[in-house]
Specification:
The protein has 17 helices and no strands. The chain has helices at about 10-50, 55-75, 85-95, 100-115, 120-140, 145-160, 165-175, 185-205, 225-255, 265-280, 285-295, 300-320, 330-345, 350-370, 370-380, 385-400, 410-425. The longest helix is centred in the first third of the chain and has 43 residues, at about 10-50. It is globular, with a radius of gyration of 21 Å. The two termini are about 35 Å apart.
């Protein structure tokens, strides 16, 4: 597919992409609904109705450890990712493994419901890419068309998940590192899939992440706000170096557990459960927990907020390094938001909205290395009125990170996936 030719065959191919997006959107609805039910059970039903007399801290540790053991059993006997990292497969082979998808999705639901510091987007990417590859094999498409169809499957689930078609398409691109491939050949199918996925998902749920974070300040931007965001975006490079140190240390300490594929997630559950018992806001993916920080910024000291952000990086590294299926985007944005609220607490002259938006966009660009997806995602969460600040933060963070020694979260995710396959084999 070196050139786009708008002929009958090309429109037929877009038709297959649209048909693929419809069941993927339905599966996204079911997956996220299952995650909400599981999380509500662990957060409310279990402590209030089943075990009302148990200390919440002990319950957090017990649930996380038990869930980790169950994740290990599921991945051991039902399978998780059965090949290499998703991005490596898609770039090099034009496909995504799909035979063990049920095991991965079930393990993700168990782990994420228990409070694992991961986002739901990782398993969703495997689901979309895997079913895209399955359809490509049924249609006997060549490797290039298989790659486009698999990417479009990822865009379809992301379009529904983010409730933003363009954001789903660009997130699929940058998440999978396909940005070096012929752009429009992949972009148009990805947007078609993301739009179809969004329409089906939104028609069923009516849910949206738009404006999740509400700020009390007047949103009229000032010249000084751009200066604040520029400085905060440089902080993203430091956070990238910190994340590199934390992730590689956790990887080194947990590597001996690869010989014990069932106990490996259980140990991870025990560790993130202990941290979660001491700092409950480190549990779960973090987007709703960050909303709590934004709504109640005065309840926490700057020191606690800095420790909270660092602790989130630790629990994210633990969960990735011990085999829990899940993504890194929302946990990293939570850590960034925590640092932003801390910056506001230390320097009240910096508006809370500017501090949070600047930290999220700068750290997102620097650590995730996905500037376009970061711009769209933070814009969805905070609102379009902050878009000039978001663009500045994401681009500065991304560019400065190119000359730094910080960790690329996508590389960390790929390393964790690859080592998880080795542990299970």
């Amino acid at each position: 597919m070196e050139h786009i030719r708008a002929n009958r065959a090309y429109f037929a191919f877009l038709g297959w992409i649209t048909l693929l997006a419809i069941p993927l959107a339905l599966l996204t609805v079911l997956y996220l609904a299952g995650l909400r039910v599981g999380s509500d059970f662990v957060r409310t039903v279990l402590p209030s109705q089943w075990l009302p007399g148990v200390d919440p801290r002990l319950l957090t540790i017990g649930v996380a450890t038990a869930a980790g053991l169950l994740v290990g059993l599921i991945l051991r006997y039902l399978g998780g990712s059965d090949s290499r990292a998703l991005s490596d497969e898609l770039v090099e082979e034009g496909k995504v493994a799909y035979r063990n998808l049920p095991g991965m999705i079930l393990a993700a639901l168990v782990g994420l419901s228990s409070g694992a510091s991961l986002g739901p987007e990782g398993p969703l990417a495997h689901l979309g890419g895997g079913l895209g590859t399955w359809l490509a094999e049924r249609r006997r498409f060549d490797r290039d068309r298989s790659r486009v169809l698999s990417l479009s499957g990822i865009a379809a689930v992301f379009g529904g998940f983010l409730t933003q078609p363009l954001g789903g398409a660009f997130l699929a691109f940058e998440f999978t590192k396909l940005v070096t491939f012929p752009f429009y050949i992949y972009l148009i199918p990805a947007i078609v899939a993301s739009l179809a996925g969004y329409l089906v998902y939104f028609a069923i749920t009516g849910a949206s992440l738009v404006g999740l974070y509400q700020f009390d300040e007047i949103t009229t931007l000032k010249v000084t706000d751009f200066l604040y965001v520029f400085v905060l975006s440089l902080m993203g490079v430091g956070v990238g170096i910190l994340f590199k140190l934390i992730f590689r240390t956790v990887q080194r300490l947990t590597r001996p557990l690869q010989a014990y594929p069932v106990l490996r997630p259980a140990a991870g559950g025990l560790l993130f459960g202990l941290i979660g018992a001491a700092m409950p806001l480190t549990l779960y993916s973090g987007e709703h927990e960050l909303a709590h920080l934004i709504e109640h910024p005065g309840e926490y000291s700057a020191l606690y907020l800095l420790l909270l952000g660092a602790a989130k990086l630790v629990t994210l590294s633990i969960c990735m390094s011990t085999g829990f299926p899940g993504g890194f985007i929302f946990p990293l944005l939570f850590a960034a938001g925590s640092f932003g609220v801390a910056a506001h607490a230390l320097l009240p002259a910096v508006p809370l909205s500017v501090a949070v938006v600047g930290a999220m966009s700068g750290i997102g660009g620097a650590v995730m290395r996905m500037p376009i997806a970061t711009i769209i995602l933070v814009g969805i969460l905070a609102g379009p009125e902050y878009m000039p600040l978001i663009i500045l933060g994401a681009i500065v963070g991304y560019l400065v990170a190119q000359i730094s020694r910080g960790e690329d979260a996508r590389d960390a995710y790929a390393t964790a996936e690859t080592e998880g396959v080795i542990a299970r084999n």
